[in-house]
Each structure stands twice: as structure tokens, then as C-alpha cells.
Amino acid sequence: MQKQPAPALESAECNCLALRQAARHVSQIYDGYLAAVGLKTTQYSILAKLSRLGPLSINELAKSMVMDRTTLGRAVQPLARDKLLTIGAGDDGRTRRLTLTAAGQAKLKAAMGQWREAQKKFELAFGVDDSAALRTALRRAVAAT
Predict the structure, then answer these.
(1) Fewest Cβ atoms nearer than 10 Å: which of 76, 102, 109, 118?
(2) Beta partners for 86?
(3) What is the CATH number of the domain that holds 24?
(4) In a domain? residue 7
(5) How many domains does the chain contain in total?
(6) For 51-104, what is each residue's pLDDT tens digit?
(7) Which pTM was predicted?
């Protein structure tokens, strides 16, 4: 008797694919607006987190953003180069602490209007209530896994 291959999961049923496609699509919308101030969505998020939470170690920020530490480390390099944040010594010799600079705060302030426009565009297309429900569901997905 010949073994039957396991049925393949249809791409329409794959949560990971659906989330990644949606994330890429939404990121493109926000990136389009933030390009006017020279930022990408991830960079804006880094600056906003540091503004809200204060100086953080790379590990703390990576955990807060649900990002791999190495990926975050690469993402902060251009921000440090442009003097939007500083990478200094942490509590011990092994950690690095990220601090938002005055230039970073100014860049974040300049970008907020563009972020609001992207947010408005998404919410007009997807619906304000559905957008809020989506954020809640996505936060639950992060917390559940």
C-alpha cells in the first residue's frame, strides 16, 4: 500500500501568512507617509517607545517591541548615526542603553503628523471600530504565544 502525502495546509488557512501579508501591506502605508520625514515604520516605533518609556537596554526594547535583539541592534544603527538616539553603557559592561536625543525627540514630533495621516487612512479604509478590535486581537495573539 502506497503512503498518501499529508494534505497541505491551504495558504488561505495559514495564520502566519495572513498576518505577514497584512503586516507588509499596512507597513507600506505607514512607510509611505513617514518617508516625508525620513523615517521607516520600525524607526518611528523605536523613537516612540524610547520617548514613552525612557532609556532602555537593547534587550528591554527588543522585548517591548517583540523583536529579535540582533534585528533591533541593526535597526538602531542608522538612528544612532543620525544622532536621533545614543547607544551608551548600560548597568554593567555587557549591556548597552538606548537614549532618545533632543534631535530624536524633534524628529519624532515632526513624524507624528505623518503617522496620524497614515493611521487615519487605514482607519477610514478598515473602519475605526474594526481597527480597534484588530489591535485588541493582535495584542491577545502576542500575549497568548
Answers:
(1) 102
(2) 99
(3) 1.10.10.10
(4) no
(5) 1
(6) 999 999 999 999 999 999 999 999 999 999 999 999 998 778 788 899 999 999
(7) 0.86
